């Protein structure tokens, strides 16, 4: 059995959950057995009804102890589900939270940990994965013995399709002393409930050519109008105009939206590494030879400070 821990927002499965299912199915084909899922936290019961369409069985861990996230609790829930499923491999998203609890889970399971992987497969009783290392300058192939915990880099893997209804099984997990050491007292969301960058269907990225932090107000306005997320290049992050969480690229986030706007972005290879799987790319750049135009479906050669306000006005008319 392969267990996939399925991220969700309390209502819907996140993309990372469906990427995890794709990986888990591939591993199950090679190692034998079925794919089980785990949903944890607020809204888990409702989400499990959707999750069961992708896996043969969904474990649900919920209740007052599970209203807030801590890495210790999530590792405990995943360990309990892995034991209940008799899982040889646990697959989880390498989201910010996933990165923090998967290491703890690997220790609990005495398992090999293959982190932030681009791809994974199994051969002759071992698991293999590829990942970037050394500031993403090196592509590394790793082998792990079983049991193993594999985390999936967001937006690297096709999303799984539903495969018929599985069972839903509540799983009672008692918190121990370790999980009670940290208690979350209050949560203040930085993004005010806006769309997350790795999940967004539309991403609006500004580059150094925007000229200032102030100019990103226009990027924010355009992204809000489209229900999208704001992205930025590393040059922008280095200038301190935007937070690192918004960096797209080799050393930032990988995104795969339906539409990617690259505004005053040159299109360096390290930036393209994070956005070149976008379905449609729209670029505005004053330099007709900017490399971004090689990746672009719709391009405007012009000054972003004239073109973007005009785009905003047009969208407002829709
Ligand atoms: P620039 O390259 O300076 O481009 C600005 C563009 O704006 C130009 O094309 C210019 O023609 C245009 N422009 C200027 N003014 C206007 C205007 N008024 N109207 C329209 N267009 C205008 N970069 C990332 O983005 N993400 C990463 O994860 C990343 N990782 C890296 C990892 C390593 C190991 C290294 C070495 C580099 C990495 N970089 C990364 C940096 C990358 O090489 C580029 O330096 C960076 O992407 C450039 O950002 P930019 O396009 O905003 O700036």
Automatic annotation (TrEMBL):
GO BP: fatty acid beta-oxidation using acyl-CoA dehydrogenase
InterPro entries noted in UniProt: DHS-like_NAD/FAD-binding_dom, ETF_a/b_N, ETF_a/FixB, ETF_asu_C, Rossmann-like_a/b/a_fold
Cofactor(s) required for function per UniProt: FAD
Cofactor binding description: Binds 1 FAD per dimer.
Any GO molecular function: flavin adenine dinucleotide binding
Binding residues for FAD: 208, 233-234, 247-251, 285
Keyword Flavoprotein carried by entry: yes
Keyword Flavoprotein belongs to the record: yes
Entry keyword set: FAD, Flavoprotein
Domain Electron transfer flavoprotein alpha/beta-subunit N-terminal: from-to ranges: 2-190
PANTHER family with a match to the protein in the record: ELECTRON TRANSFER FLAVOPROTEIN ALPHA, ELECTRON TRANSFER FLAVOPROTEIN SUBUNIT ALPHA, MITOCHONDRIAL
Family: Belongs to the ETF alpha-subunit/FixB family.
Protein name: Electron transfer flavoprotein alpha subunit
Annotated organism of origin: Oceanithermus profundus (strain DSM 14977 / NBRC 100410 / VKM B-2274 / 506)
């Amino acid at each position: 059995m392969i267990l996939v821990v399925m991220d969700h927002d309390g209502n819907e499965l996140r993309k990372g959950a469906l990427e995890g299912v794709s990986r888990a199915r591939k591993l199950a084909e090679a190692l034998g057995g079925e794919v089980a899922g785990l949903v944890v936290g607020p809204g888990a019961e409702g989400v499990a009804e959707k999750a069961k369409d992708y896996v043969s069985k969904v474990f649900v861990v919920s209740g007052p102890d599970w209203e807030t996230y801590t890495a210790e609790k999530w590792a405990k829930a995943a360990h309990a589900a892995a034991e209940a499923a008799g899982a040889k491999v646990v697959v989880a998203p390498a989201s910010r939270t996933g990165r923090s609890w998967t290491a703890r889970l690997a220790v609990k399971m005495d398992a090999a940990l293959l982190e932030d992987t681009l791809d994974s497969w199994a051969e002759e009783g071992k698991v293999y994965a590829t990942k970037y290392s050394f500031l993403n300058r090196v592509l590394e192939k790793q082998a792990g013995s079983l049991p193993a915990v594999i985390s999936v880099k967001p937006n690297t893997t096709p999303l799984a399709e539903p495969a018929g209804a599985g069972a839903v099984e509540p799983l009672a997990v008692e918190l121990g002393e370790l999980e009670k050491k940290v208690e979350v007292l209050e949560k203040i969301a930085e993004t005010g409930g806006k769309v997350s960058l790795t999940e967004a269907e539309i991403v609006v990225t500004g580059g150094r050519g925007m000229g200032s932090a102030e100019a990103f107000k226009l990027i924010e306005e355009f992204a809000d109008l489209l229900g999208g997320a704001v992205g930025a290049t590393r040059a922008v992050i280095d200038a301190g105009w935007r937070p690192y969480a918004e960096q797209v690229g080799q050393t930032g986030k990988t995104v795969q939206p339906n539409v990617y706007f690259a505004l005053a972005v040159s299109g360096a290879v390290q930036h393209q590494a994070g956005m070149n799987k976008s379905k449609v790319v729209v670029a505005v750049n004053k330099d007709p030879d900017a490399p971004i135009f090689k990746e672009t479906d719709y391009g405007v050669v012009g000054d972003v400070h004239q073109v973007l306000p005009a785009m905003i006005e047009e969208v407002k008319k829709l």
